[in-house]
Specification:
Blueprint lengths: L18 H25 L2 E8 L5 H9 L7 E5 L14 H4 L8 E5 L8 H4 L5 H20 L2 E9 L2 H12 L10 H8 L1 H15 L6 E5 L3 H16 L12 H11 L14
Parallel strand pairs: 1-3, 1-4, 2-3, 4-5
Helix pairs in contact: 1-9, 2-9
Length: 273
Amino acid sequence: MGKWPVLDKIEMIDDPIDDESYERKLKKLQRRLLDLQVHHMKTGGRVIIGIDGWDAAGKGGAIQRIIYGLEPRSTHVWRIGAPTPAEQGRHYLWRFWERLPAPGNWSIFDRTWYGRVLVERIEGLCDEAAWKRAYREINEFERQLADDGVHIIKLLFHVSADEQKRRMIDRLNKPHKYHKVGLEDFRNIAKRKEYLEAYKDMLDKTDTDYAPWHVVATDNKEQARLAALGIVVEMLKRGVKIVEQPLDPRILEAAYKMWGWRPGNGKNGDGKR
């Protein structure tokens, strides 16, 4: 853990990218993610990708690109909002324990347990002693998971105040995006200064070796998506050697008996492609 700058002082990724380069890089990263997911499916690996950040910072778009092409039965996206009546009154981490990945699965959290030290802190939804205690509780929670072999990747999406305003107004101008705007968004935007302080405390107190924070800071949606996918790939590929698996000889034999197909004799088994 160390001293982070205030988010508004972090250097932004502002390099423009053309559509062709963006699509090429995106597809390459998505293929790599699928390779890594298949590896975890075979080895029983467990992955948590926790995503937080400003409203309209591109969290949802990044999640869409992360899960695109992944094996859906092993991928779970949890959209975290206010606790349900059944969750209220329990320890705030309880509902996250309920959503942890099984062996071979990936769990992606659209907002996370860090709500305790962000919105709950700022809106007074818990007392000061509770949110101050939460930094230790969260570190212990993540340490337990890491010690148990879970891969934890934490992404924080940051955009400038001007870009956030532009994106929110864009949503207001498009009826099919009305569902993305709520009154709480305006309340949060009005408290940007308080959130900047809360984000800094969060980064300073919960950026650990076993669960480090990665800040995706850019006003460019395409760059944010590439950066996010690149971080996930980089973190998950460590110590992993992806090799092309040979086709099971029993499957080869079954395909030959049913269709007369052998490798190299054509896509349809008739020498034609």
